[in-house]
Amino acid sequence: MTISSHAGYPRIGADREWKKSLEAFWAGKIDEAAFLQQQQEIRLNHLRKQQAKGIDLIPINDFSHYDHILDTAVMFGIVPKRFGYEGGAVPLPVYFGIARGTKDAAASEMTKWFNTNYHYIVPELGGAEPVLAENRPLQAYREAKEKLGIEGKPVIVGPLTFLKLSKGYAAAETDEWLHRLIPLYVQVLQELAAEGVQWVQIDEPVVVTKLSEQDVERLGTIYKTFAEAVPSLHIMLQTYFESIENYRDIVSLPVKGIGLDLAHGQEGNLASIRKYGFPANKVLGAGVIDGRSIWRADLNEKLALLDELRKTVTDDHLIIQSSCSLLHVPVSAERETKLAAELKGALAFADEKLDEIALLTKAVSQGADAVHNELNAAAEALRVLRSSAARNRRDVQEAVAVIAAQEPNRNKPFAERHAVQQAEWKLPLFPTTTIGSFPQTAEVRKARQLWRKGEWDNEQYEAFIHNEIDTWVKLQQEIGIDVLVHGEFERTDMVEFFGEKLEGFAFTQNGWVQSYGSRCVKPPVIYGDVAFAEAMTVAETVYAQSQTDRPVKGMLTGPITIMNWSFVRDDISREQVAYQLAYALRQEVEALEKAGIGMIQVDEPAVREGLPLKEAEQAGYLAWAVKAFKIATSTVQDSTQIHTHMCYCEFHDMIDSIEAMDADVISIETSRSHGELIHSFEQNTYKLGIGLGVYDIHSPRVPGVEEMSGMIDRALRVLDPQLFWINPDCGLKTRGREETVASLRNMVEAAQIARNKY
Ligand code: GLN
Ligand code: ZN
């Protein structure tokens, strides 16, 4: 019999009750007992829901109070020394201390979970010897069984993935660490087997990345040890986010099941199955329902895919599941009451995906006729959206086709533009500027709310915004900054702001997903062809410019960042969506220029987030990402200075692409990853204008002049002084006013010192 399962359920709850419970606990509004009670209720509710939807094999231990990687670390007593942990089950205050910091100890680092927008807490190895502090999967299994009679599938992060994501050890110590961890895993698995657990899902997403020969050997060691220690336990080795490299090695590991991503990884994985088959003694976890898309699946297509798989895999060796954990999609589309019917009908969030999985399973076991009506309904919903006016904008499609066929270059190469711009702007050596936003105080947020609720009319709100702009234009002038910004007071969020003004976007009421800890984001939905409707930033920018003689830099969010921070339609390629966005933004750039704004910054902090996991696909992505940026920015006059901004990230593998964007000036973070970034510039002389952030805006601390001077000196060892700008490393919207002014004063003083010196 074919059964249904999936790889994990969202924690946050349909009403974000999980988030609320966490925050109430952190604020001291509820005590630990009440917190644990609430968390259990949420967890059990989620299990009940999955039970009701007819999921046969329900994952457990996918729930967490914060993050599953942190859970794995504390399960093994891996707690950095500074938290004063003394063994045994890790107490909640220590657990949250690692995640969020305490008054005495800094939090552990947080970083992106593969190419998703979920962030995990990076385990720090190297402290005390790991031990099995607490068998969390076992607790979760007992709870589900006792309370709900569920025969759950404990989910555990696999040893290789856990090690690869951890820090605090040298590469040469990998095997040592593995041999410390393997016995602990064995203990967990043995206790599970003794309890009667049938299936365990062990997540090893690292196998979709390029593995070294040694890593393949390590996998062999790990899973052979497990197989020998717990022969009765069915291990589902779960992979996701892409097709697996080393297909033959992976499918011959001694485990009962292999979970494959047949959505994002469909092409590669299917090709491997076609070419090499699938071992007859193994169960295929067929991840046919895309765990990262918010769209309904084309179920007929999925059934055809399953039919193909069934030629290789017998029905009793087939589990129909999601391609990855449903953590990456919102909980339930049912509660969206304000979306257009054509859009709402085509959405499938986590709960709807469970329905799809159950439906496909039924179709496989009873024949497609048994679910005939549901299949038709799904096909019809997709047809309606596909044929909607929003997805068939000929004006957009034709214009974008013409533009995409051209090479979007500026009129002149940078060196020539640079001369024209120097003559035009007459900026001093080491011009100073900021990244765009100024403090979004409680007052600013309040004003926006009042206006949104209709309690303030447009004039009132505009007057308020103008007043903020006035204040900050004066401040910037007085501090002595060379290139000013208006401050972005009218924006809640750099993507939402543009999404609300462009056509082709929709906003959900409840489409939240967990980003890190209790922090959730509600990405806009790009569901139609994207089109420019009217100027979005011209009024505020022109107003700011009217208040000063110094240049005011216009401020836009770039096409790739808007796309990577949204849910994107999947009926056309992301490349096409990016070009549509770029074309719309080009019209805004042109409108700004026409209105007399001669410096325009197009932020692209999220370019790297979209980088495909597969090395072979990275160059292609970067090429069209660069092209999209250039489509948006290349039609301006030589004297118009295009800026861009990217936040911190590992640029070493991207410098060529950044250069290819051909922005006259780029500002990037260096204060936190200083050494590395400077190092990459040593090997690759960057030939365009560049501002390396001279101070970290993520902390309220006011950096001293000397500290920033040191930063500038170090950067100038590898960068051309004629092309160097001085700026903070990101926008200042999260900072307070006093500290911002004090920091910027010091920054301008450091620039002055540098001018005298070079
Ligand atoms: N212009 C934006 C700001 O200053 C850039 C934010 C970002 O890089 N994430 O807020
Ligand atoms: Zn930034």
Automatic annotation (TrEMBL):
Question: Any idea where the Cobalamin-independent methionine synthase MetE N-terminal domain is?
Answer: 4-312
Q: Which Pfam families match?
A: Meth_synt_1, Meth_synt_2
Instruction: Give residues annotated as binding 5-methyltetrahydropteroyltri-L-glutamate.
Output: R16, E17, W18, K19, K112, N117, R519, C520, W565, E609
Textual note on the cofactor: Binds 2 Zn(2+) ions per subunit. Binds 1 zinc ion per subunit.
Q: Which residues form the Cobalamin-independent methionine synthase MetE C-terminal/archaeal domain?
A: 430-752
What Enzyme Commission number does this protein have? 2.1.1.14
Q: What is this protein called?
A: 5-methyltetrahydropteroyltriglutamate--homocysteine methyltransferase
Pathway noted in the entry = Amino-acid biosynthesis; L-methionine biosynthesis via de novo pathway; L-methionine from L-homocysteine (MetE route): step 1/1
Under the GO molecular function aspect, what terms does this record hold? 5-methyltetrahydropteroyltriglutamate-homocysteine S-methyltransferase activity; zinc ion binding
Q: Which PANTHER family match?
A: 5-METHYLTETRAHYDROPTEROYLTRIGLUTAMATE--HOMOCYSTEINE METHYLTRANSFERASE
Q: Which residues are noted in the entry as L-methionine-binding?
A: I435, G436, S437, E488, D603
Q: Which cofactor does it need?
A: Zn(2+)
| InterPro entries, alphabetized | Cbl-indep_Met_Synth_N, Cobalamin-indep_Met_synthase, Met_Synth_C/arc, UROD/MetE-like_sf
Purpose of the protein: Catalyzes the transfer of a methyl group from 5-methyltetrahydrofolate to homocysteine resulting in methionine formation.
Binding site residues for Zn(2+) = H645, C647, E669, C730
What CDD domains does this protein map onto? CIMS_C_terminal_like, CIMS_N_terminal_like
| Record-listed L-homocysteine binding positions | I435, G436, S437, E488, D603
Q: Which organism is it from?
A: Paenibacillus protaetiae
Q: What class of enzyme is it?
A: transferase
Q: Gene encoding this chain?
A: metE
**Protein family (similarity comment):** Belongs to the vitamin-B12 independent methionine synthase family.
Catalytic residues, per the record, are H698
At the top level of its lineage, which domain of life is listed? Bacteria
